[in-house]
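Why do we care about 3D structure at all? Because function follows from shape, and shape follows, mostly, from sequence. That is the central idea of this module. The next example makes it concrete: a single protein chain, its amino acid sequence, and then its structure expressed as tokens.
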Amino acid sequence: MMKTSMYRTLALLTVVSAACAQAADADAPKSMTPDKAASYTGQKETAIVAGGCFWGMENVMRKAPGVLSVEVGYAGGKATNVSYEQVSDGDTGHAESVRIVFDPTKISYGDLLVHWYFRGHDPTTVNRQNNDVGTQYRSEIFTTSDAQAKEAAEAKARVEKSGKWGKPIVTKIEPATTFVVAEGYHQDYLIKNPGGYNDHFIRAFDF
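And the structure:
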């Protein structure tokens, strides 16, 4: 796969140059770091979603209003210590995912899913996003409470009913178990490398 080969090349790099970071779009939205979000004194809620390459999904979700931080990792598997190489083999049960901390007074969990998550990737393809194929690229929402499970089901039903995608929505909804933070070079990848591989974008249609 295109992305897998790119990852294996990137894994050999030990330094990301300052020039590369400075080359990022000056107008690109930049959410807080997880450490800063942890000290945020307003209301906070956490969402965990998967929808293909986590570089692109991170880039989409950080643009939503009310988002405090976004970090990429691996969710949905049992192991609590896995690497990209292990997950990319498709045998660990993990999906490339993003963990989003947001202020629910500025955007609700349901609206975050409907207007950003379900528009930012194709939720109609099983274990695939464009060139990326495998269970690690599945569309899935990992809920952290019964209330989130209810809102996620309602959001999925709303998107399905709209018919905008033209095919059935295959996104899975399951309780979150573990979230393993991905390696440092994956975090904020498209800010550090604005010309990097990205197959995610917000669709013009809404639900």
